[in-house]
């Protein structure tokens, strides 16, 4: 992370945090390189599965025979350079399929998980340099995105929802008294009235029949991304998720707020963040609806839902 300076003078500096993602070989395993190959779910394949479930797009079902549910790609392509589905050009050249590829699926030419996040900036801070008062106000935040006061919650683009923290306890961090705040257990609880608008009925059945929205602890962020890839996000280690979610995952360790919670520690006087702790897990869920389309040969040995 670096700083993008917009203005400097009159005792203030206006800047934004510039996010840069890069591979650090020194902090990676000995044999880990950007050329290392991994198997990942084929997002393009999943999009064709969804299109094929529409009776008016039977051409998409025929195209599934030339694709596979998983792809072998390099780490560098997956995160930074982008990988190209080897079957995409072939499939999209089929009559009528070019319309599905361009208009309906909205597929990018290459897929890279960090491409749209790398080299970007969001919030703009105006901070005092302390030059006008002998350093008394050095580091004091004067405005955030042009506002003098911050909202009670903030909007996270990755979740397409607001996030709020609740007070946990008073702590001491490196000799400084501070307040610890944690993500509320109700953040992804769709039974809560304030979360009702995020209970999105996608028409898919992940865990049970007639499912109106995802179980507690999961949020569908498909509509937050170009092409609406089938991505479901949870708190680390599926913290606060319903048992029906945890029981569906073989080998999952028991989650706990102590090990898997997201927390921030703030110094109360200056409201400076002392510490931020979070573990992150992303789950790409591949879904097939047997009642809507016939399974292609490549999917015959796969379960209804996979992590």
From TrEMBL:
Q: Name one GO cellular component term.
A: membrane
Q: Which GO terms describe its molecular function?
A: scavenger receptor activity
Keywords attached to this entry: Glycoprotein, Membrane, Transmembrane, Transmembrane helix
Query: What is the protein's name according to its record?
Result: C-type lectin domain-containing protein
State where the protein is found: Membrane
What species is this protein from?
A: Ascaris lumbricoides (Giant roundworm)
**Is Transmembrane helix among the key words of this record?**
yes
The record's similarity note reads: Belongs to the CD36 family.
């Amino acid at each position: 992370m670096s700083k993008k300076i917009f203005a400097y003078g009159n005792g203030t500096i206006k800047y934004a945090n510039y996010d840069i993602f890069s591979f650090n070989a020194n902090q990676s395993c000995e044999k880990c390189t950007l050329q290392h190959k991994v198997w990942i779910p084929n997002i393009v394949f999943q999009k064709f599965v969804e299109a094929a479930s529409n009776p008016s797009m039977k051409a998409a079902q025929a195209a599934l025979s030339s694709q596979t549910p998983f792809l072998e790609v390099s780490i560098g392509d997956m995160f930074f350079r982008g990988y190209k589905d080897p079957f995409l050009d072939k499939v999209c050249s089929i009559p009528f399929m070019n319309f599905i590829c361009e208009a309906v699926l909205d597929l990018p030419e290459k897929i890279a998980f960090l491409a749209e996040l790398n080299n970007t900036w969001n919030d703009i801070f105006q901070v005092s340099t302390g030059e006008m008062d002998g350093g008394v106000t050095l580091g004091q935040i004067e405005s955030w995105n042009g506002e003098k006061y911050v909202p009670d919650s903030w909007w996270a683009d990755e979740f397409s929802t607001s996030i709020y923290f609740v007070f946990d306890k008073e702590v001491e961090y490196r000799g400084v008294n501070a307040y610890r705040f944690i993500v509320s257990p109700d953040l992804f609880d769709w039974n809560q009235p304030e979360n009702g608008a995020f209970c999105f009925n996608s028409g898919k059945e992940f865990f049970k029949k007639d499912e109106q929205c995802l179980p507690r602890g999961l949020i569908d962020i498909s509509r937050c991304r170009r092409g609406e890839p089938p991505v479901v996000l949870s708190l680390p280690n599926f913290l606060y998720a319903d048992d029906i979610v945890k029981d569906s995952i073989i080998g999952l360790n028991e989650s706990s707020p102590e090990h898997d919670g997201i927390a921030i520690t703030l110094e109360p006087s200056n409201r400076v963040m002392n510490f931020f702790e979070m573990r992150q897990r992303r789950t790409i869920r591949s879904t097939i609806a047997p009642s809507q389309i016939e399974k292609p040969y490549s999917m015959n040995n796969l379960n209804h839902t996979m992590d």
